[in-house]
Amino acid sequence: MADAASRLATLAEELLGGPLPVRLRAWDGSEAGPVGGPVLIVRDRRALRRMIWKPGELGLARAWVAGELDVEGDLYALLDGLSGILWERAEDTRGLLDSVRDPRLRAAARSLLRLAGPLPLLPRPPAEEIRGRSGGRHSKRRDKQAISHHYDVGNDFYEIVLGPSMVYSCAYWTPDGSLEDAQRDKLDLIARKLNLQEGDRLLDVGCGWGSMALHAAREYGARVVGITLSREQAAYARKRIADEGLTDRIEIRVQDYRDVADGPYDAISSIGMAEHVGEVRYREYADILYGLLKPGGRLLNHQISRRPEPDEEAYEVDPFIDAYVFPDGELAPMGRTLSTLEAAGFEVRDVEAIREHYALTLRRWVANLEREWDRAVRLTSPGRARIWRLYMAASAVSFERNRIGVNQFLAVKTPVSGRSGTALRPRVWNEKA
After folding, report:
1. What values do phi and psi take at 220, rounded to 5?
2. Residues 292, 269: contact at Cβ < 8 Å?
3. Which residues, other chains included, contact 344 with Cβ-Cβ below 8 Å and sequence gap of 6+?
4. What is the C-alpha to C-alpha distance for residues 92 and 171, in angstroms, rounded to an integer?
5. What element of type H or E holds 203?
6. If you ran DSSP here, which 8-state letter would residue 430 be given?
7. Mean pLDDT over the full length of the chain
8. Angle in degrees, CA 232, 157, 181, rounded to 5
9. Does the bond joining 319 to the residue before it have cis omega, within 30 degrees of 0?
10. Backbone phi, psi, residue 262, to 5°
């Protein structure tokens, strides 16, 4: 098919109501669009089928994971340019062939379908897409399945992406610091906010590969219980703890936060875990953590947030993230998290927004993945590696553009007397040791 790129560009501009900001290269080698920037490559016409029948992120994501779409040049620039057009306007074309009333748009859709060629109506989704979720949303059984889908893809793969720190949350950057420095500083920031002391009992909810538990025990002498639903994470964390000779101070459990019943704790850290809780469980989550703390105990809740929607009832979970990255994950606006903590009884003493820090962290993770791309593919699959590259790069752009943020909430189970001791050390956590 001669000059497929020009035909595709023209049709896409008609359907999306504006010029494409990137150059296109089609399966026949033809190109169209502005020069000098990144190039979106449509390697296979199956990508068009996916985008026609699943407009918006999910159709694009399936084509990306399957290798039918690719990028030449600056991935971040392409994502930044396309996010406002293809991923937002395309949502308005859901059910394209059945619901478009504008005859001009319907004709464009039919032309796009003809351009896709005589292929099966809808290609099968890539194998990496989650299937067969069982149980009610955010039930214990379903949450365990969701966590396994994301985290049980091989610790060796995560070592490539995260580096030696094995910390899978926003780092805390200083000028000219390395990723390892920034992750260590983040863990120390949290420990100082929690005012950890020798012998304090810390619960690390969603402990990952054990980095916070190790830091708290090694640097502050805390006694730590770390919980995760990922068996691979737990095994990795236990080995690290044994290697450092800290098995007498740290216990790692494969356990749901709803099943922890051995409080009280002096402090609780929840770092990048609340995104998995789900809006219907946020209050229950806050109530449980409140109940597990002793009077005067502290919670550090580190959580990604989204911008509030004009119509909150219309909020929908990101389809790409839900299908390929964090199944059933949900983001809440910052104000809702604060209100929920207060409703549970906490006194919120500090909120720190570190949005820009996550963009830097994600860009470093993408660089790690790209540097060892061939090994990452061997350890997982081409599709899995492509998922992680896309989701991390797109997330970096979203943090940079203030579409999402990340915040640390310091909340205290203040006694009836009101004497929590917090005000005696104002913002001591911002002082470098």
Report:
1. -125, -5
2. no
3. 283, 286, 287, 289, 290
4. 36
5. strand 201-205
6. G
7. 88
8. 95
9. no
10. -115, 35
208 pLDDT higher than 90: yes
Tokens, residue 375: 């090994």
Mean pLDDT, residues 283-294 taken together = 98
**CA distances to 45, 86, 333, 396, 404 from 356, in Å:** 38, 25, 17, 9, 10
**Distance (Å, whole) CA 391 – CA 326:** 10
In the numeric block, the tokens 């599709």 are attached to: 383
Whole-angstrom distance, CA of residue 180 vs CA of residue 195: 22
Q: How confident is the model at residue 353 (pLDDT cuts 50, 70, 90)?
A: very high
Res. 433 pLDDT band, cuts 50 70 90: very low
At residue 433, the 3 state secondary structure works out as coil
Determine the Cα–Cα distance for residues 8 and 23; give it in Å rounded to an integer. Answer: 11
Q: How far apart are CA 27 and CA 9, in angstroms?
A: 13
The terminus-to-terminus CA distance of the chain in angstroms comes to 66
Which range is least confidently modeled, 202-216, 348-362, 405-419? 405-419
Give me the pLDDT at residue 130, please.
86
CA dihedral 287, 288, 289, 293 (to 10 degrees): 100
CA–CA dist 300, 354 (Å, integer): 14
Whole-number Cα distances in Å, 239 to 33, 242, 277, 381:
53, 5, 27, 26
Q: Cα separation of 21 and 84, whole Å?
A: 10
Question: What backbone torsions phi and psi does residue 182 show, to the nearest 5 degrees?
Answer: -65, -35
Which secondary structure element, helix H or strand E, spans residue 59, and what is its range?
A: helix 57-65
Kindly state the percentage of the chain with pLDDT values over 90. 62
Q: Specify the pLDDT at position 20.
A: 80
pLDDT band at 274 (very low <50, low <70, confident <90, very high): very high
Instruction: Evaluate whether 297 touches 269 at the Cβ level (below 8 Å).
Output: no
* CB-CB neighbours of 29 under 10 Å: 9
Phi/psi class of residue 9: alpha, beta or left (left: φ > 0; alpha: ψ in -120 to 50)?
A: alpha
> How far, CA to CA in Å, does 240 sit from each of 164, 210, 230, 246, 387?
11, 8, 16, 9, 28
Question: Is the pLDDT at 91 greater than 50, yes or no?
Answer: no
DSSP states of 74-123 as a string?
-HHHHHHHHHTTTTTGGGGGTTHHHH---HHHHHHHHHHHHHH-S--SSP
Q: Are 34 and 50 in contact (CB under 8 A)?
A: no
- The two structure tokens encoding residue 250: 């740290």
